[in-house]
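Appendix B. Worked example

We walk through a single record from start to finish. Start with the input: the chain for diguanylate cyclase, Halarcobacter ebronensis, length 715.
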Amino acid sequence: MKKITFLKILLLFFIPISLLSIDFTEEEKEFISNNKNIKVALMPDFSPFSFIEDNKIIGFEQDLLSLLSQKSGLNFVNNYGVWNKILYKFKTKQVDMIASISYKEEREPYTLYTKPYYEIPIMIFVRDTFGEYKNLDSLKGKKVGILKDVFYYKELKEMNSMNLVVYETYEEITQALVFGKIDALIQNLPNINYLIKKNLYTNLKLAGELKLPDIKKEDLRFGIREDKPILHSIIQKSLNAIQKYEWDVLIDRWIDVKYNLGHKKYTSLTINESKYLKEKKDITMCIDPDLMPYEGFDKNGNYTGISADYYKLFEDMLSIKFIPIKTNSWSQTLQFAKEKKCDIVSLIMETPQRREYLNFTTPYLTIPLVLTTKLDKPFINNFKDLAGKKVGITKGYAYVELFKKEYPNINIIEVNNVKDGLEKVNKDELYAYLGTLVTVGYNLQQDYIGKLKISGTMSEDIKLGIGVRNDDPKLLNILQKSVNSITSEQHRGIINKWLSIKYEKKPDYSLFWKTLLIAIIFISFFGYWNRKISKTNKLLKEAKKEIEQKNMELQRLAITDKLTDIYNRARLDELLDREIERSKRFNHTFGIIFFDIDYFKKVNDTFGHQAGDDVLVEITTKIGELIRKTDIIGRWGGEEFLIICPETQKEAVEIIAENIRKHIEEHKFPKISNLTISLGVTVYTPEDSVTTIVKRVDDALYEAKKGGRNRVVFN
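Next comes the structure step. The output line below is what the pipeline stores for this chain.
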């Protein structure tokens, strides 16, 4: 008997949701039978409740509608739009129901409300430079962003104390705050936090909760047309039939909230993640024992350094201890990680080889790489000048392979640690040592003042995050949330603490009480040493200034076309890639104009190459005057040029291109008189990569030349 009862209970977990019965009336059953498709209005940018990703609508409400579909037998057809547009569609009966609506008495004539399916606090967000927020009086006279037709607009307007600025989309209102167009915004917590996380905004913080007498929280409900009471009854019964565990799954999946009240930041974990940490009790951690001031062990064996301060934050966030496991070297740390002797590696660069045994969070530290040589060696403007020379790199560091690949002619020698590398340079066993700027500077200051110097920098920085053993995805998710939760103030506080440390030796003043002679010797020695340090510091400052100037010049040369002094092709590739990422992030488009000079070979053949060079310089100068300040021009190669027009639609790009064509045609060039150009134009689409968009605009240019030149063709 007990076995039969147990089997019945077990089978309940495997019965499809659609078969669980709801007590629908005959009238409701008939409605379901005759009205299979129900039009529901949703917002495409109301993350994490409903938003578009990879051209698909996803989110809490989409999953909720799937559950309602299974329970009721109705099929929901999505209609997307910004809030004021979908509210208008609902009021004018173009759709059957609307999601994310909050109760307001004035909406009752056209709305049948369900009970709330989620309630969220309404918060006030500001930039991190805002200062202290006490209450709504702190916003007096300030520009405050709100969404159009939001349900608390009337109450804020009646206060008449702040300048309300109305926006249509969540992206617009968040960007406005990020870029200083408004002083604050008022909106629900999960939505803005999702956008902060998605777009990696670092200058926003939570000031406090909106508190008004008649406004408590944003109550999310479904609204059903007032002429469809049967549909309202079906939806409410279906909502009532959703089990607690089903709500838990929805919330665990989508409502991942982090918030900052005062100065302490908290990370919200799912129920399962909290349970995991409670059972785990502590997290074992391997570190680099020789990477001060980033991390290491002090003389008492205690974990210290920049990363140690980050892990103190993580301990506060997660209420769990991180236990450092001592290793003798970075190589041993990597070996321990491979053998799963530690749960995480505290500070590590992601590489393909390491992905075989670790997963990685996003980086939380970025570190420049520098070359150290003896004082008598010249500054290194080009790493290719090191061909055939011995350069030391700490064994096991990821940039060993990076450096070998980039500069195969340099003789790479692996050393035990930074001290070993610098000592070998000091003894002329190595020409140079490559290491991180702060670690090298820390050791130079300790032991090598007046002996070694920083002689060059690498263009690539090292990005370091947390390495998590690859058999523990839950821990990876938890630590990623912790990394995401670090505020910009916390970042600055930790870095400033460690990079402003000063080291000094205190004289033993008891010597003065021994003999006058010893006192005089000490004072003389101190004066001599002080002059020596001042001289060394002056040399170091001069050297640093020279490095900075040379680095700035190197950086400019690396991205600039030598003849025309505009961006070169390599830089254009980077800027195109960046513009594509910006367009994906902010959901806008941009235009590209690709042009070359018609019959340019004839110019070189007839007037000589110097005249041709003069034309290239003059044409780029002229076009630089014609394009907008936000547009970017670069030389693609030869007589071909490319212009990037950010946040520009098809019609506007064509107008810019035609204006350029016309002015060049009318311009008088010295010696040569008139020239024309052919232009191809295109705009970015969400499917584009750098390769596809360049090919498309190149094809447009080809069509312009094929069609008779001196024209603009859009592709």
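Two observations about the output. The chain has six domains: 2-117+220-256, 119-216, 271-357+484-499, 369-460, 509-559, 569-714. Residues 369-460 form a domain with the D-Maltodextrin-Binding Protein; domain 2 fold (CATH 3.40.190.10).
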